[in-house]
Amino acid sequence: MKHLALFWALACGASAASAGDLAYVNVALRAWLQAIEADAPYLLVDRGAGELRLMHGRALLRRVPLAADSLGEQPPVQFSLAARLRRYRPSNPWRGLVASPFDWEQNLVADASAASALYFTSGLLIYASPVWHRPGAIDLQIGVADLRALYNAYSPGITLVVLPANWREIPQQ
Fold first, then answer.
1. Residue 149 phi/psi, 5° resolution?
2. Could you give the CA distance from residue 53 to residue 60 in angstroms, rounded to a whole number?
């Protein structure tokens, strides 16, 4: 009888947790559908596949494997690119770019380096260099070539959607 009561408690707890997970997955999928319908470039993090995807509508433009995922259990499902960051000095990596009177100089200054990063709303940071990682921060680490491609291609405002690891699973009834 004790085993039956324990089984029942576990089953009820599991179904309550799966209902919360299902609601979170639904919110993430809704955000993804809105990004598709916007017919504009966006970034999609598929935590189940361990990759970041550059998308335009339904078209896949680039796959980027994740080297590290520190987003936590249930991060916000949607972010917006707030700034492109460069590390000029270890004392102030958040310093903005200063415009140059010569275009070629500005292009060199604005081009991504291995120590660049993408800063999104709600504090999400995407980087290649481990100097950006902070314990407890929400961030994603990708390869240098991929970071340079994303950094140089998009300016602030691009949307990033996060799909949970279990988004493809169908809950058992």
1. -65, -45
2. 7
